[in-house]
Input
Amino acid sequence: MARFRSIPVEVDAEQWSGSNEADLAAFTSGDFNALDAEDRENCDDPDATGQLFERSGRWRLVFPGDWIVRENAGFYVCRPDAFTAQFEAVQE
Output
């Protein structure tokens, strides 16, 4: 059996604070939207406060603290615990 190690990849990411909609909209070229009260009431999880059009071609709910990650294939949502387990800050 052969063993493999994942190749380190650097990504760009921004964390959703619940109030930095303009920053995330600019970062995602308009693929991020904050949800207003009516949108939250009508979505699958009323605790969500944003949504991202992901690389899969679907809208994904975003919660405060979630990270929006940009890779070559596009953007995706990453929960805070998964983000800190997978990524560390790059020292430039």
